[in-house]
Amino acid sequence: MYRQFGVMTFLTIMACGCGGSDKEETAAPAGPTLTAPVPIVPPPVVSPAPEAAVENAPQGNIVVSTNPDAMVIVPPVPFKVVGRASDGLPNEKMIAKLPTTGADRFVVSQPAVDVNATPSAAAMTQRLPAGFTPLLNYGVDASGYPKRILCDRVKSEMAFVPAGVFQMGADDGPEESRPQHAMYVDAYYIDVTETPLASYQMLRDEQKARKQRVSEEALNTSDDPQMPALGVSFSDARAYAKWSGRDLPTEVEWEKAARGTQGFAYPWGNGRPAWTKQKELQGVQLPGSEPTDVSIYGIQDLAGNAREWCLDHFAPDAYPKLLADAKDVPRNWTGPRNPTEKFERTVKGNGPDWKLSHRDGVIVTENVADIGFRCVLRFYNVE
Questions:
Q1: Domains of the chain, earliest start first
Q2: Is a pLDDT exceeding 90 seen at residue 103?
Q3: Helices (H), the chain
């Protein structure tokens, strides 16, 4: 039994593009004009299963049929078959049925699923790499991924950042942060807090036990074990990330996690800094000490705690060069190809006035007393 739904639902479900089906928390685009299908040149031969979920169906090729429980799509290229109705498809997928042999149209209807049902932990775990556990008490994103997961090895909680476009940089900031521009990034998870000393020490203990090269101690190793690990070099920070099954964030990933889809100046929005107590630049404290320093995704300490290593090389003129060469909105950018200093990597956070657009470069071998790091789990490749 299929459920009736409107044009906006069709667009949310079908317009997935090449970055997958993850959706931003932004307003949906206007729906298509409801007109009768027009004759087209038959597309290439498509042989989907008699009843299958479809993933790719461009917005311009969606035509609503007279049947309120189904619509017709006329794909100019074959769409992607991602499963059968009997596979327990998530609610955002559709069921396509080939009406007759050789037909150039497909009747599409929504699978009969309970939209209020919570996916099982087993089903969610299948969507994650080994070593990561869904935390379903936080809910599930519209894309089907849990909003929070746990990195089992170090017990680090990670927040989901959906795919989509956000505003990066600032027109009123320093030269290296100009101009503000749109950037697309695929979905990923990022640590809710900076890597604590206790977790970083787990790597060092295992390296010692295995008689491997041991990463350098953090400069603040005598602090509270839950304090961010500070003064760790870029290579040792990335070694920790890889050991835990993850990576360091790109500059794009870090900034979107901090600013959200609206390109806020601070995690809490725009306007003045909103600290609840006196705050000094470069001051580092226990994670979660400042309740206002939380982004829309629930990620903490992005503005006013440690500065953080990012994966990208650094160049002060990276943004203008990127935009001069870009034909469309840049996608999953991983930094300049020809950095000014090839041994400099980008650091983010705790910038002047705590604005999230601030960026700087630091030599990878340096142990800087106010630089820490956090990790990401991504579902796409970076160069």
A1: 1-116 (no CATH), 153-378 (3.90.1580.10)
A2: no
A3: 7-14, 121-125, 197-209, 234-243, 251-259, 318-325
